Amino acid sequence: MNTPRWKPSVTVAAVIEKDGRFLLVEEHTPDGLRLNNPAGHLDPGESPAEGCAREAREETTCRFAPTALVGIYLSRFQRPVRDGADGAIDDVTYVRFAFCGEVGDPDPSLRLDTGIVRTLWLTPDEIRASVDRHRSPLLLRCMEDYLAGQRFPLEAVVTDSSVRSQ
């Protein structure tokens, strides 16, 4: 049997907390404006922690230095394809590496990444009350795991040197 190989999309997310508030981005999506952690896809040649620092900077203009892994999450996303064939669906499985760490101030010389409308600092209760605006259910799950004290050492995620060879 020759079935296609399953290839989940690898993403990275920054769980950034300061003074009891979490830094989120509001971004354009096919479903309208949504809230999310600063997050995105892992690029070739980078470790998950490096990708997370890059994505956080691109989406918030803030330097972010991961200090711990909050968790690794598997999530499946399905929705009808817009302007697609009848019954066609987008069906993507994501593997998300979520990191917490230290954040710097916004860099006024940088611009927010394409699609990002603004950044927001929200309390846990404000995030819990806005579930209908979340881009992914992992936003809330990552925050709750962070608040519960879930942390793993950065060394738990090993990036072999072969990844650096292009």
Principal-axes geometry comes out as globular
Compute the separation of the termini in Å: 32 Å
Helix content range? 10-25%
Strand order of the largest sheet: 5-1-7-6
Structural class: alpha+beta
Instruction: Give the C-level CATH assignment.
Output: Alpha Beta
The second-level CATH architecture is Alpha-Beta Complex
Q: Any idea how many domains?
A: 1
Q: What is the beta-strand fraction?
A: 35-45%
In round numbers, the mean pLDDT is 93
- Report low-confidence residues grouped into runs of 5 or more: none
CATH fold category name:
Nucleoside Triphosphate Pyrophosphohydrolase
Number of strands: 8
> Helix-strand pattern, N to C?
EEEEEHEEEHH
Radius of gyration over alpha carbons? 16 Å
CATH H-level superfamily: Nucleoside Triphosphate Pyrophosphohydrolase
Keywords: Hydrolase, Magnesium
Cofactor: Mg(2+)
Protein name: Phosphatase NudJ
Domain Nudix hydrolase: 5-144
